[in-house]
Amino acid sequence: MPAVQETVEQVRLIDVDQYKYGFVTDIESEKAPIGLSEDTVRYISANKNEPAWMLEWRLDAYRRWLTMREPTWARVDYPKIDYQNAYYFSQPKKKLASLDEVDPQILETYKKLGIPLQEQEMLAGVVRPEGERRVAVDAVFDSVSVATTFKAELKRAGVIFMPMSEAIREHPDLVRKYLGSVVPVTDNYFATLNSAVFSDGSFVYVPPGVRCPMELSTYFRINEANTGQFERTLIIADKGAYVSYLEGCTAPMRDENQLHAAVVELVTHDDAEIKYSTVQNWYPGDADGKGGIFNFVTKRGDCRGKNSKISWTQVETGSAITWKYPSCILRGDNSRGEFYSIAISNGRQQVDSGTKMIHLGKNTTSRIISKGISAGKSNNTYRGLVTAHRKATNARNFTNCDSLLIGNQCGAHTVPYIEAKNSSAVFEHEASTSKISEDMLFYCRQRGMSAEEATALVVNGFVKDVLQQLPMEFAVEAQKLISISLEGSVG
Amino acid sequence: MPLLEIKNLHVEVEDKKILNGLTLTVEKGQVAAIMGPNGSGKSTLAYVLAGKDNYNVTEGEILLNGESILGMAPDERAAKGVFLAFQYPVEVPGVATMTFLRTALNAQRKTRGEPEFSTPDFMKLVRDTSAKLGVSQEMLRRAVNVGFSGGEKKRNEILQMAILQPKLAVLDETDSGLDIDALKTVSEGVNRLRSPERSMIVITHYQRLLDYIVPDVVHVMAKGRVVKTGGKELALELEANGYAQYTDEAA
């Protein structure tokens, strides 16, 4: 309830300029030469002092990518991407040895974004109220990770949380074992591109029986112009382990489009659980559809062990184009996959997002709750696949897809694919499309709410089931974000 | 000065003329009943007072405390003290009644430049008010009007009125869809809100409601204007003789 009030408050405070993360940090950076070739791949790998096997892996991906074609099946429309006219790697010029050496400008940037990086400050600072939750943060600025907090404390618990580039050097066995095991190098055009040129991202390993003592979080920021961001995240929860992970993303406002093609792989062993939440707020472009991030992301979790669980929660409000289907492979018997999504499009944004629940093991269950909200002249598509393998006895799925339209120039589309090869599978699908009715708005306004307050209230009611899945502090964030995204959608 | 003055009001909805030179005055603290046959423009009057879109005022004036409200948005009018108890209260899925009440109350207070209610103060206010109206705590947790019975919906309207403390309450056919017990409960709630500072317009088809909410004055509407005004005995006369004489007179 107070969160709704905050939402309302937030809406009132917004300037004309809705996207408050649109600033650019002026910092000297070092970039790979423009364009993409084997040399670019070698440059990236060399820059990170990668072992030979990693370079080979990348080159293999690059060669495969050359033979592949960009997918066209999604309901999105965008100008042809010139892959040779972009930078694939950018890093702040100064090399860093510790957190203390992080460029104050970058720290300032993260401060503006509301991300606390100063571990010292957080630890030694004011007396903290009992039970206050702490969040370990890995911050990725353009192509490199600039700081990871709470490393020492996590290490005591046995949890590995570090930039991917470090993990490749320090834990090569783990990385080699799992990298590409969920999203194979050849999976799809964008994933293959990512495999060739991925720059950084987070690596998490939670050992058997360990419950990660805090929320883990990564913050991605694209700063450089004309630069693609290709992060790679790998999270492994060993037997009986648990971890909750959150990623957030922002970028400056620029007229040209920028490419973001990430790959996220999750692996859970027996009785393990991973909860992965995303608050995606890349720059969406201006009201006429100029600029904005192209977000082509492959996210997949593999419930490899029995009784394991993977849960995706996403709040998608940014990006000009979103192409994203966080999925679960339910391999272990009794494993469970969940997908909770709020996708909001406004202006000229185009969203094609959903999930895949692939039931392979016995007694596997999955649940999909998707809430799409379209406003302005945007298009919002839910695309989902639920499938049961021949051996997936007693597979269960429940899907609920609701779309809400604001105004009369936007579109909502639902494309569910359902496939059961085992006769004992039970799949349920519910879908609805509704419009914020004039009557509903009038009712709220008659009670004293402004048009914006009324819309925020109705939308928050619509997405309630999903917001409840987010960790508490992020739910409040997400609620604010929703209101900001819808600013100007009623008039 | 009267609380509400409507002068020669002409209103069109989708190019169809509904109100036709309506003139009506409501004094401060007065409870005025408006009766009339179907299609006489009673509900249109309610919506025009609240400022609903697509109700075009082509001529005339509405003054609240001497100030014209015609140019004001619905939420501005609400903050000035205009409250409409809907004939068909609207469902707002996923929004708890408690949240809705609080958002509405604080929005109004902010518009008026008053401090917002703190959470404990607000909870106390709602608890006390709902107890008096026989509204359960469970109902406050449910989404606004979703799955409410007819009686619950109307009681929820009265609860909102009691929380928002309007200066002018317009009750649009609050008796429709209520059985006799619910009608009594709702009427008791309304009567408890009668005060020298608050005026009410009670719109109804039937005299029955006026047995419970006894009006100070009764206006009869036909063909978009007030055709007769009298005391509460006028309602009884209408009950006995019907509306035919007025529809003929107005024609």
Q: Give a count of the beta strands of chain A, DSSP E runs of length 2 or more.
A: 23
Strand composition percent of chain B: 25-35%
Tally of structural domains of chain A: 1
Biggest protein-protein contact in the assembly: A-B, 28 and 36 residues
Helix content of chain A: 10-25%
CATH superfamily of the domain at 4-92 and 167-250 in chain B: P-loop containing nucleotide triphosphate hydrolases
* CA(first)-CA(last) distance of chain A: 26 Å
Shape of chain A: globular
Helix segment tally of chain A: 13
Radius of gyration of chain A: 22 Å
Class of the domain at 4-92 and 167-250 in chain B in CATH? Alpha Beta
- Low-confidence runs of chain A (pLDDT<50, min 5 residues)? 1-17, 95-99, 117-133
CATH topology of the domain at 4-92 and 167-250 in chain B: Rossmann fold
Binned strand content of chain A: 25-35%
Name the quaternary structure: heterodimer
Give average pLDDT of chain A, whole number: 80
What would you call the structural class of chain B? alpha/beta
| Number of strand elements of chain B | 12
Read across the widest sheet of chain B, the strand sequence of neighbours is: 6-9-10-3-11-12
Summary, kept brief:
With 491 residues, chain A is of the alpha/beta class.
Please characterize this protein's 3D structure:
The complex is a heterodimer of chains A (491) and B (251). Chain A is α/β, with parallel strands linked by helices and 491 residues long. Chain A has one domain. Helix content of chain A is 25%, strand content 34%. Chain A is built from 13 helices and 23 strands. Chain A has helices at 2-13, 38-47, 52-66, 104-112, 119-124, 151-157, 164-170, 172-178, 189-197, 438-446, 451-462, 464-467, 472-486; strands spanning 29-31, 90-92, 135-141, 144-148, 160-163, 202-206, 215-221, 232-237, 242-250, 257-260, 263-268, 273-280, 292-303, 309-316, 321-324, 327-330, 336-345, 350-359, 365-374, 379-388, 396-405, 411-420, 426-435. In chain A, strands 5, 6, 8, 10, 11, 13, 15, 16, 18, 20 and 22 form an eleven-stranded mixed sheet that branches. A ten-stranded mixed sheet of chain A has the order 4-3-7-9-12-14-17-19-21-23. In chain A, a hairpin with a 2-residue loop joins strand 3 (135-141) and strand 4. Chain A is globular. Chain B is 39% helix and 29% strand. Chain B contains ten helices and twelve strands. Chain B has helices at residues 42-50, 74-79, 97-111, 119-133, 137-141, 150-164, 180-192, 208-212, 233-241, 244-250, and strands at residues 4-13, 16-26, 31-35, 55-64, 67-68, 82-85, 92-96, 143-144, 168-172, 199-204, 217-222, 225-230. Chain B starts with a strand and ends with a helix. The relative contact order of chain B is 0.19. The model of chain B has no long low-confidence stretch (mean pLDDT 92). The interface between A and B is medium-sized, with 28 and 36 residues.
